[in-house]
Amino acid sequence: MELTHYSDYAVRLVNSEEPGRGTDSLTTVDAVRELFGGNASAARRATDADVTRFRSVRARLRAVFEAADSGEETLAVDLLNSLLLEFPVSPQISGHDYRDDDGRPLWHMHLADHPSNATAGYAAIASMGLAFHLTEHGVDRLGLCEASPCRNAYLDTSTNRSRRYCSDRCATRANVAAYRARKREEREEPRDDRSRSTGRTADSAQSR
Q: Biased-composition ranges for Polar residues (predicted)?
């Protein structure tokens, strides 16, 4: 498993809240458990107390994306480093689910579940995954969706670093909005411009 895969943990947590729309899906322990995806053993350790703790980590991870999106690379790195220091990972060599043609394990690095609590484990994996992605691909690969009011986090994996939206849906919505805005501007051409255009035409006709 590529360690950058763990960066998805950070994106999932950050996007559990949409500040621009005033929505927050992280309100119950079941919502916390859903964030773990297929990691059922780690999800089972979550308790009601983790809801508040997860929200705190979420705010700090969003701050990393906000700094990166604003071009403040050093700030983004500093914020992420503070999370890495507070929530250290437990790396292990693993061979689960990966076998070669002869049935032997394909050994790879794996981030083990944190023995402390669900929040510490999730925060450690999310922070380390984001750190791997940042150092492998660059700070500018961390972004926030530009399709207002959406401000979901995303990881830009495009070949030319051109991603601006969190999803195809938001990209389509933004393009439609831009098209409608252009059409509206064309319809609302200032009257004085039209008058000047009409006046020039009349003057030309009289001179002839």
A: 198-208
